[in-house]
Amino acid sequence: MKLSSLIPRSGKVRTGVVVVLVFIVIAVLGPVVATHDPRATSFDMLEPPSGRYWLGTTQSGQDVFAQFVHGARISLLVGLLAGVISQLFSVVVGLLGGYLRGVADDLLYIVTAVFLVIPGMPLLIVLTGYLPSRGMLSIAVVIAITSWAGAARVIRAQTLSLRNRDFVEAARATGEGRLRIMFFEVLPNMLPLVASGFLFSVIGGILAEAGLAFLGLGSLTTTSWGSMLYFAQNSQALLAGAWWWFVPPGLAIAVIGAGLALINFGIDEYSNPRLRTGSATKKTRTSRAAGGDATAANAQVSGIGSGTPPTPGGASAATAEHVALTRERTDEVDPELASRIHPSPMPGSPIIEVDSLRVDYPTAFGTVHAVQDVSLTLRRGEILGLAGESGSGKSTLTNAITRLLRAPADVAGGSITYRADDGAPTDLLHLEDRELRALRWNEIAVVFQSAMNALNPVTSIHAQFDDVIRVHRPSLPAAQRTAIAKEHLERVGIDPGRIDAYPHELSGGMKQRVAIAIALVLEPDVIFMDEPTTALDLLVQRDVLDQIVRLREEYGFAIVFTTHDLALLLEISDSIAVMRHGRLVEYGPAVDIYRDPQHPYTQNLLSSLAELGSLA
Amino acid sequence: MKFLLRKLGLYAFIAWAALTLNFLIPRMMPGDPVSILIAGSKGQIDAEARDAIAAQFGISEDPMIIQYVHYLGDLLRLDLGVSLSQYPVPVLDIISQSLTWTVGLVGVSTVVGFVLGTGLGVLLAWRRGTWSDHVLPGLTFLNAIPYFWMALILVMLLSVTVSIFPAGGGYDRSIFPELTPEFAGSVLYHAALPALTIVIGSFAGWVLQMRNMTVTIMGEDYVSMAEAKGLPQRTVLFGYAARNAILPSVTGFALALGAVVGGSMLTEVIFNYPGLGYALFQAVSAQDFPLMQGLFLIISLAVILANLIADVAYVFLDPRTRQGA
Amino acid sequence: MTITDTTTGSGPQPQARTVLEGRNLVKEYPVGARSGLLRRQQTMRAVDDVSIVLTQGRVTALVGQSGSGKSTLGRMLARLIPATSGQILLDGREVPTRGNAGHREYVGDVQLTLQDPFASLNPLRRIAYTLGRAVRIHQDARGEAAVHERSIQLLERVGLTPAERYLDRFPHELSGGERQRVSFARALAASPKVLIADEPVSMLDVTIRKEMLDLIDDLRRDEDLAVLYITHDLGSARRYSSEVLVMHEGHVVEAGESATVIDDPQHEYTRRLLAAAPNPAARRR
User: What burial class does residue A571 get, using C-beta atoms within 10 Å of its C-beta: 0-12 exposed, 13-18 middle, 19+ buried?
Assistant: First the structure.
């Protein structure tokens, strides 16, 4: 590993590391450099900073600089000790409770709750009030006792979620023992949490020590930043205007606290190897770059990032899949990738025209072209199936059309035109916010992937119908809005009496229907459906599909139906567009594609489906 | 209301744990308070007084369990003992005097800090990727400033250097404390700086938490759907994103409240504010153990109550907890 | 008696031998919070009185929708979760269905692979670690060299070549298909008699599903494994298994030879499932 790889990329983290290092150097070397004894009094009382006393003197003529550097040692050491002790506590309690569950967890949970809720500072004060001797170690232990609970709860929650992850179950299936799983499989995956918990308990420790010392409850025979403030306060340094006495220690606490918090921003980068090969993952994770297509960037970037040349012949097909990603980047002129576009003989007037659309997003390894030169025409009443594997760019494409792309993904070229009933064109990409809002849901509605998350969990179904009707049909009275909502629930086969239900009270299939009903409520021209049935069981999927097809006949809206399930598309859609690596590889009437696929990729897909028994 | 009942049970248990901790601490800590007191008095306490103090503490040769029953009985009768430093004023009287001041000051400024911070957090999340991101390191710094130091600096700037606010006290001593506009004005005037300290000290934490949570929530499908619905920005931001993002803030109230209370106590000390924190400081300085115990108990119970209120609020905010009512 | 293998067609089968058997297995889960100490805890039967036989050298498919209890049954058979009642027999000998006694020896014979190739490998561990642990646990392999050699062998067995290169990788540097192969390699490290594959292909892209199922079939043949193929997909069950059990709400509603059951379903539920599958041939237009 090169040394340079240890330097964090983020400016915040770099600042944080520098700050903390500076203080460590001060704490280690300061007392050696300081010429004065921190406790030695002199007749130079309350002198402002000078060449002789860098930070001035106290009321009893002690050198503030000497006290400051000695104080740094004590404050940092107490903080560090308290941090280590409390974090050890949190990890053991959180990990045991979260992994073992059952009675042990219940007990630990309650104990944690007690320490979490009982306020730390008063407890700390009472405990130290009784301490016969207040050494550094006992202060640190007492601080740790009052501060471990928060982190323990966080670690418990994380353990609970990790223990249900497949790799933990796989480790059990392999025959690993409990302790080994806890400490070798689960714990390493929590290092970011543990590290950030540690940083915060160090901050907490420094603050608590300062607070105690400031109240005169610290060890008054040693000099810490807190005890400096205690003496400054007791000697009326404020009234004397001796800012040099009380500003440096407090400022130091704040700066080092901020430094530690800044390091925390970048902890993820260190502990997650996914970030070692590419920082793009971080970007897509935090901003969900192109809607559901975060994996697109992942797949491509990791293909590039691992930096292995394409495996020579003899490689398994699975490797070939991996290689394909890498190669895709280098020789884009592969004849296999040329699109097969059949002229679309669909009847009806165009409603959405996409012309040479390109969507890019920047990553650390250069720009990823999530959508490249895609042209499509959707006609009134048409069901257009958009097929492609995960990362093919299909969600990015639909997000671009519905104007739901999230930064840093950006349309790099091309146009998207919406045509109203009378054929009047609207340039979707250059709409004012207000115009765009007016068009939305009135003409273009969306049914999101996994209805699980498409409904606001904290408001009722009624409210989620009502807000959209109220905004777009402001003249309708409330009673009529409710009537419309109920009518549409009924249309999708849900008892209108459930209108006041909350999303969590509905099954997955019902949520999906509600999402469809909400999409229908303003009778739009187009509905975009992003994997609307993927999370559903086969039987429920069948019901929902039948419903969609029936409603389409009833209302006459066009549908853009996105899925990775080609067999499903072949059944329900009028035309199909197959995407791969951001390109349209095949586009034409569904019947033609089913009978006679032109592109090798589509042929491969269809033959795979046939071999798997998915095409009857 | 199973959720609420469970919470109620948990808090009842925590309250009991606080009571018991309060009973155990003086008995478990190395060195007993009586000898500390006697050592502190430098021989001014004779054997008789010593026994009186011990009895007053409830420390006796009785088995622990008997002592515990006596202790609980005393609590039931609201008998928290007698203050040593202000002998023979009952601890309860001192507490009830300072409680109003603390609830007024800390209660109000904590709520103000929470509301301000949460609001600003939403704003920063909404304006993410612009100038607003540069505010974050500043907020991180603000969040790390110890309350008492912030108080010192505020006093230096606004009280010593420029005499805008008083440097301490709860009200002007020359005014008789009664319900007059003059007195109320004096109270507010004196509360301004300590309140400012607590608000500044606590709000940055809320901002950071709320901003991060809102940013996370803004990636959820239901926010995209709200946007796709053509709802006004305001509705998307507050009705969907912030409405969900505030839930962890409310749950995390327990985590943060302890720190706010701790910081507020130190703030009271600096401003000689006649609240619980200042009283606790004086009790500790004077080694007034009964008062110390009583104050610890009452502060803990207040925080437990605040947590319970936060959980009740949570039930109103999150329909998922209302299931099976 | 010899049973003609109609699907995998690899010539006449040797005497079919039962390796793993589950008898009257039941798994109950508590539902909701218990209110009051005296009131009885409500339970839900995820698996309700299911018996199953896995045979050496055969693939048995367990088909059902999510929530049918098929994965719960698989985990019970792998002894990852305790059974509420019922028996498990390995090579005709009864093994405990709860507790940890003899767990390690048991998983030496019965291995489970999981559905999600992105989640079933510890993201922080290199492949060498993951495989190495499995080898150390089951092979008594001593020393780096022996473990390394065995790991290479396993990777080659599942078609990941050149194997050396894969050892140093982290899971996120592999494709979904490669990761699933690593999972199979890890299972093979135990030299098991039974492989329980829980939805091995449902998270993979269509174009590589076939290769994965072919790999499982190869392993079945070469290692003489009894395979339990858990899936929601009747089509692939028809192609890749000799027997099939259809589960619905914790019960086995239909069982038998795959070709018979799927081509001529007797139970209403099986029929509905078959009818619900997307079918391009049934286009309305």
Answer: buried
How many CB atoms neighbour CB A325 within 10 A?
17
**Tell me, what's the pLDDT at C12?**
46
Task: Calculate ∠ Cα A39-A44-A49, nearest 5°.
Answer: 90
Q: Is the pLDDT of residue A317 over 90?
A: no
- Do residues C262 and C81 lie in contact, with contact meaning Cβ atoms separated by under 8 Å? no
Cα–Cα distance, C152 to C137 (Å, whole number): 16
* pLDDT tens column, B214-246: 888 888 889 999 999 999 999 999 999 999 999
Confidence grade of residue C119 (pLDDT, cut at 50, 70, 90): confident
Question: Which pLDDT belongs to residue B122?
Answer: 93
Distance CA(A432)–CA(A428), nearest Å, equals 9
What is the per-residue pLDDT for A318? 34
Residue A63 DSSP one-character state: B
Contact C70, C63 (CB under 8 A): yes
When pLDDT is cut at 50, 70 and 90, the band that residue A190 belongs to is confident
Helix axes A243-265, A225-234, angle to 10 degrees: 150
What pLDDT is attached to residue B53? 64
Contact at CB, A613 and C65, closer than 8 angstroms: no
Average pLDDT along chain A: 82
* CB–CB contact A456 B240 (8 Å): yes
Contact check, Cβ <8 Å, A166/C282: no
Q: C82 φ, ψ to 5°?
A: -75, 145
- Which chain A residues contact residue B247 at CB under 8 A? 458
Q: Mean pLDDT, to the nearest integer, of A524-546? A: 88
What letter represents residue B44's amino acid?
A: Q
Query: Which of C244, B167, C139 is closest to A236 using CA atoms?
Result: B167
Query: Which residues of chain A neighbour B244 with C-beta distances below 8 Å?
Result: 456-458
The proportion of chain C whose per-residue pLDDT surpasses 70, expressed as a percent, equals: 89
| Shortest CA gap B179–chain C (Å) | 50
Report helix, strand or coil for A358.
Answer: strand
- Is B137 an 8 Å CB contact of chain C? no
Amino acid in the structure at residue A484? I
Dist. CA A258–CA B146, nearest whole Å: 11
Band of residue B30 on the pLDDT scale cut at 50, 70, 90: low
Burial B89-102 (b: 16+ CB within 10 A, else e): ebbbebbeebbebb
Q: What stretch of H or E contains A322? A: helix A317-330
Contacting residues of C for A311, CB less than 8 Å apart: 162
User: What's the rounded mean pLDDT across residues A507-521?
Assistant: 90
B63 touches chain C (CB under 8 A): no
Show residues of chain A in contact with C173, CB under 8 Å.
277, 302, 305-306
Alpha carbon C262 to its chain centroid, in Å, reads 20
Per the document, the length of chain A is: 616
* pLDDT level of residue A451 (50, 70, 90 thresholds): low
Torsion angle in degrees (nearest 10) through CA of C254, C256, C258, C260: -90
Q: Does C32 touch chain B (CB under 8 A)?
A: yes
pLDDT at B33: 62
Q: Do C172 and A273 touch (CB under 8 A)?
A: yes
For residues A56 and A242, the answer to whether their CB atoms sit within 8 Å is yes
Where do the domains of chain C lie, and which CATH numbers do they carry?
Answer: 42-122+194-283 (3.40.50.300)
Asked whether A552 and C285 are in contact (CB, 8 A), the reply is no
| Cβ within 8 Å of residue A265, ≥6 positions away | A10, A12, A13, A16
Interchain CB distance below 8 Å, B293 and A126: yes
Residues of B in contact with A124 (CB under 8 A): 262
Q: Flag whether residue A338 sits within 8 Å of chain B, measured between CB atoms.
A: no
